[in-house]
Amino acid sequence: MTTILPLAEIDSALVEELLDAAFGSDRHERTAYKVREGMDMLEGLSLAAVDSERQELLGTIQCWPVALTDEAGKMHPLIMVGPVAVHPDLQREGIGRAMMAALLKEIQPGGNLPLVMIGDPEYYNRFFGFSAEQTGGWSLPAPWEPERLLARIDPGVVVPEKAMLGPWKK
Predict the structure, then answer these.
(1) Residue 88 and residue 106: Cα distance in Å, rounded?
(2) What is the pLDDT of residues 96-113, one digit of tens each?
(3) CA geometry: angle 24, 28, 31, nearest 5 deg
(4) What CATH superfamily classification does 2-167 receive?
């Protein structure tokens, strides 16, 4: 039986082991890490999937405070989703989908910041409404594939067309 819990309840060493298994030990060099560099994860929106019978960590999803800095230097806050990690032996069993659904239940339409992620456009658009439609003019602090920079923005929320995505700094 899979249970979704706050990620803060999980030993950080187990989380690091899972992330290494899912993405490799060189994952810290990825662009997403540079976007959220120096930020603490948003504990209320970061989740874990656990096998409640065997007490094993199956997957994690983390969220981070980031911002778009527009051409005038104004910061527009967003929430970066990811990494979404599932143990390689358990992928394609719906664990990642269950974690994303649980996360999106926590995010109320119209009352939250836009979400951004780097991910598979077909999957995250089809199941969760993320797209690259509004991200074409955004820049990142390291190389990225523009079609994989995805956002989920509530109607009526305005984000800059041209901006740099990076850590949220007050």
Answers:
(1) 26
(2) 999 999 999 988 666 668
(3) 110
(4) Gcn5-related N-acetyltransferase (GNAT) (3.40.630.30)
